[in-house]
Design goal:
Elements: E1 8-12, H1 16-33, E2 36-40, H2 43-52, E3 57-61, H3 69-78, E4 87-91, H4 101-105, E5 108-113, H5 118-149, H6 156-201, H7 208-239, E6 248-251, H8 252-265, E7 273-278, E8 282-285, H9 287-303, E9 310-318, E10 321-328, H10 362-372, E11 376-381, E12 388-395, E13 417-421, H11 425-437, E14 441-445, H12 448-458, E15 462-466, H13 474-483, E16 491-496, H14 501-510, E17 514-517, H15 522-532
Parallel strand pairs: 1-2, 1-3, 3-4, 4-5, 7-9, 13-14, 13-15, 15-16, 16-17
Antiparallel strand pairs: 6-8, 9-10, 10-12, 11-12
Helix pairs in contact: 1-5, 2-3, 5-6, 6-7, 7-10, 8-9, 9-10, 12-13
Length: about 550
């Protein structure tokens, strides 16, 4: 097969500095992603380039003299050969998204706002480049198959299969494109709030109340970003079969009651009529994952129900199943969407009104976690604005009387001395201040080798060790601490961004006592430190 031509990217901007900045940014990935970058200073120049080349994607400035971005896009898509070229508009103005609906209908796939975030640009561009390469490869394959069809009628069935596969790939890529646009939106909102709140704290004359509100905003939006990352990682793990369940007998009614109490205590259900009817039913399940299923179903009900609406949560046993039902009086689900409501990236309406938010992966995760438990999940709705019902069924087991876990003994000998080994400067500074605020004596080190030296000189009772350290990683730090008689008795807690069963196994084999996944909840951290500090503080 002849070598495929490199996909081309066209950058259109009348401002020479902006054009140079964007083309330079794209050029640094060009060799890695195997594409070429071309430039145009006007709409007319862009049309000339389109006549000469095929493009994987066009980055088009909205505000240009003469022929502006929208007019240029319309002209490009008026030509049959270039009608399907994806266009990403670039603008410095945060216009209302509904105002851009016409632009999307004329072929725009997304907007980027200046200053452009390199990681977001790279993610979007790489998808279109990969799609262009795949499409070109499939076109060549289709031509070859077409030639062979005239000679071998037996290849007809395979050709049909190839066409169906191509259509499937195109549908999947379209879903991924929409998801990337949603992800960009969901990341921009909390990042903007965090940036604004951080700037407010540094303003002269800001009131103490204002500072406190800004801190709460930063904390709340950081938690929101953490949930987005957790959802993405969990879905990836679930789809690839890398989630291992830590099963135990669980009363589903008690677990759901605890989740509902959390929603009430945090005020997340304040504006809703939340009703519950929970009958005991025992299942063999992972409490963390079952709480995740419950939270996703409740979040979905709250998201799509107007304030003042009613949400009913019920559990009961039915034949060999324990059933959880979450019914709401919200916007409902159109009949055509019901069959796909649990598919990855499907999220109700794909309009530009993103008021509900979310990535459209929560229900996909619910379905996969349900299947891992040997259960099922169903959705039902009588139509738009008539509410919806989600019903979870899990295999029932006989009633279990679980022994109450012994409460962890709290250290009565004072707070342990803590060593923090973390290479991220901001993360290290914040955690050191936070632990200090809770009364801990803390020393900190920026890498593994410095951490080993500090462990010998500082003689801590407990060490918090980041796994992803430069030089020697956290696993090696733990092994060396355990091998040295002077440090072998230090309690070790691993901090990592990975939570797979394989990661937990490696952590424990390296000699750690506990494993925490970032971002670490402060209450959980305090509990783990307290439970680990069972030896007298070294004097």
């Amino acid at each position: 097969m002849p070598k495929l031509d490199k996909p081309k990217i066209l950058v259109v901007n009348d401002d020479a500095n902006s054009l140079f900045a964007l083309t330079s940014l794209l050029a640094q990935w060009a060799e890695q992603e195997s594409y070429e970058v071309l430039a145009a200073r006007s709409g007319q120049d862009a049309l000339r380039q389109v006549l000469m080349h095929d493009f994987a994607v066009i980055l088009l400035d909205v505000n240009m003299p003469g022929m502006d971005g929208f007019e240029t896009a319309a002209a490009i898509h008026a030509r049959a050969r270039s009608a399907d070229i994806p266009i990403i508009f670039i603008t410095a103005f945060l216009a209302d998204e509904l105002d851009r609906l016409k632009a999307y209908q004329h072929g725009a796939v997304d907007f980027l706002f200046t200053p452009v975030i390199p990681q977001i640009l790279y993610a979007k561009i790489s998808v279109f480049v990969a799609l262009a390469m795949k499409n070109e490869e499939l076109k060549k394959q289709a031509r070859q198959l077409s030639q062979r069809t005239t000679e071998l009628t037996a290849t007809n069935q395979r050709l049909t299969r190839e066409i169906e596969e191509r259509q499937t790939v195109e549908r999947q890529n379209h879903a991924k494109d929409e998801f990337l646009a949603m992800l960009g939106h969901e990341l921009r909102n909390p990042l903007s709030a965090i940036s604004s709140a951080a700037s407010l704290i540094g303003l002269p004359g800001v009131s103490l109340e204002g500072v406190q509100r800004a801190k709460k905003i930063i904390q709340r939006q950081s938690q929101h970003l953490g949930r987005i990352v957790d959802d993405l990682l969990d879905l990836s793990r679930a789809m690839s079969g890398k989630i291992l369940l830590n099963r135990a007998p669980i009363d589903l009614a008690a677990l759901v009651a605890t989740s509902l109490e959390t929603y009430r205590a945090t005020g997340r259900s304040t504006d809703y009529e939340l009703e519950q009817d929970l009958d005991q039913g025992w299942v063999d399940g992972d409490s963390t994952r079952l709480e995740q299923i419950t939270s996703n179903l409740l979040d979905n009900a709250l998201k799509y129900t107007q304030p003042g609406g009613r949400i009913e949560v019920r559990t009961w046993t039915e034949n060999e199943d324990v059933v959880l039902s979450v019914r709401d009086t919200g916007v409902g689900i159109p009949a055509e969407l019901l069959p796909q409501v649990f598919d990855v990236f499907v999220q109700g309406s794909s309009t530009l009104d993103r008021s509900q938010g979310g990535l459209g992966i929560g229900l996909s995760l619910v379905r996969r976690l349900s299947e891992l438990h040997g259960g099922s999940i169903e959705a039902d709705s009588q139509g738009p604005n008539r509410g919806s019902t989600f019903t979870l069924r899990l295999p029932r087991i006989e009633h279990q009387v679980a022994a109450a876990p012994a409460a962890p003994a709290r250290a009565e000998h004072g707070k342990p001395r803590v060593l923090l080994i973390e290479d991220n400067d901001d993360g290290r500074e914040m955690m050191t201040m936070m632990l200090g605020g809770y009364g801990y004596d803390v020393a900190a080190a920026a890498d593994g080798l410095l951490g080993l030296e500090a462990a010998v000189s500082y003689q801590p009772d407990l060490a918090l060790v980041d796994i992803g350290l430069p030089g020697i990683d956290g696993y090696e730090v733990a092994r060396r601490l355990r091998a040295d008689p002077a440090t072998r008795d230090i309690k070790l807690i691993a901090l990592t961004g990975y939570g797979l069963a394989e990661d937990l196994r490696r952590v424990m084999e390296a000699g750690f006592d506990r494993h925490l996944v970032k971002p670490v909840d402060i209450d959980q951290l305090m509990e783990v430190i307290d439970s680990c500090a069972q030896v007298p503080v070294k004097q």
